[in-house]
Write a structure and sequence with these properties.
The protein is an all-alpha fold. 84% of the residues lie in helices and 0% in strands. 20% of the residues are buried.
């Protein structure tokens, strides 16, 4: 009896640590999540960039002096990312803000002159064919002028906020660069740690991580490379048609190419309509044909090639991930959405297999 009581005391003493540990762990997890939450987006972008350039890091790591220094290899790969990827992206954003400021100034001039000189001032600011189309509508529906004025006000607020957030952009840029360095250098350690804490058998956790890698590779290369090619081809078509700012609208096509269904058509169709409206029929036909036969076909041809290595993920699953990811996380959701949904389907399939095996072993089904 005494031994039993002693044994009970030992059990109580052995299990008494769990509740305090759970409380402390939950508290620290909550505080860590609160601290990390503002950095989720830049860290996610840095993870995507590090994943994309990790093959480059591995090649650098195998050469010369880099074999003895993982820090030097990671720093070199990060510098390559900064100069070949991030700097052009920021340049495109700068062009967008610059052209946006010009557009706001142009709309402000239209409103100012209209308020003093009436609709006749449109003939000074817009092409004649456009004026002929707009004037009857402006005369008949006065609310259109209010819409233009409201749109210009929104544009002004957006431009001011964009330039006012310059410090935030630099801050996020710095986080992405620093995080990219550590993710490249210690990425294999992080992956091993995640694989160990996943509540799955070792073989299943390895398959899970391999599946995540396949999906990410397919989405990253499928979405980004296709969008970059479409944007470059679209900018060339914009320049051939004689429209202004081909670099800006090429960058816009890179962005819109990531959007399902309409994609780059949201840029080159309005451009073609503008050319037709100003009676530049030849240029309008050229841009329309270029968009239909070249830009769209490039996307249809290249995207399946890039995504073909992504495993047996059903198109509908990818569709839900892309559309839902866009709604939930913006552009970042284009990459995270398919990953999250596909991995959930993978776990659901594992559960189905294990549940079926349990039913068979229990004799419920044959």
């Amino acid at each position: 009896m005494i031994g039993l009581l002693k044994g009970e005391k030992k059990v109580q003493k052995g299990n008494g640590w769990f509740l305090p540990f759970l409380v402390i762990f939950a508290l620290l997890a909550y505080l860590s999540g609160k601290v990390s939450l503002p950095l989720v987006k830049p860290l996610s972008w840095s993870a995507l960039i590090a994943f994309s350039v990790y093959p480059l890091y591995e090649r650098i790591r195998k050469r010369g002096v880099f074999q003895r220094s993982a820090n030097l290899a990671a720093a070199t790969a990060t510098c390559v990312v900064v100069f070949l990827v991030l700097v052009p992206c920021f340049y495109a954003i700068f062009l967008a803000f610059k052209e946006g400021a010009r557009l706001h100034q142009f709309l402000t001039e239209i409103i100012s002159i209209m308020e003093t000189s009436g609709e006749g001032a449109l003939a000074v600011l817009l092409p004649e064919k456009i004026v002929e189309i707009i004037r009857p509508w402006m005369e008949r529906y006065t609310f259109l002028r209010a819409w233009v004025r409201q749109g210009a006000s929104w544009g002004a607020v957006y431009v001011v906020e964009a330039f006012g957030n310059t410090f935030s952009y630099i801050y996020y840029f710095s986080i992405i660069v620093v995080a990219n360095f550590f993710l490249l250098r210690d990425g294999h350690v992080i992956i091993s740690f995640l694989q160990e804490i996943i509540p799955l058998p070792p073989s299943e956790s390895e398959i899970f991580m391999s599946r995540a890698k396949q999906i990410l590779r397919a989405v990253v290369y499928g979405v980004i490379l296709t969008a970059l090619v479409q944007g470059a081809v679209g900018g060339i078509g914009w320049w051939i048609a004689g429209l202004p700012s081909p670099m800006l609208f090429g960058a816009l096509m890179v962005f819109f190419a990531m959007i399902p269904f309409l994609g780059t058509a949201l840029v080159w169709i309005p451009g073609s309509a503008y050319l037709f409206a100003i009676s530049d029929i030849t240029a309008g036909i050229i841009l329309l044909a270029w968009g239909t036969l070249v830009i769209s076909m490039v996307g249809r041809f290249l995207r399946p090639i890039f995504i073909s290595g992504g495993g047996n993920t059903h198109f509908f699953v990818v569709f839900i991930g892309v559309v839902g990811g866009l709604a939930a996380w913006g552009i970042l959701g284009l990459f995270m959405g398919p990953l999250v949904v596909s991995l959930f389907v993978f776990l659901l399939e594992n559960y189905r297999v294990m549940w079926k095996a349990w039913l068979e072993s229990s004799g419920y089904i044959q």
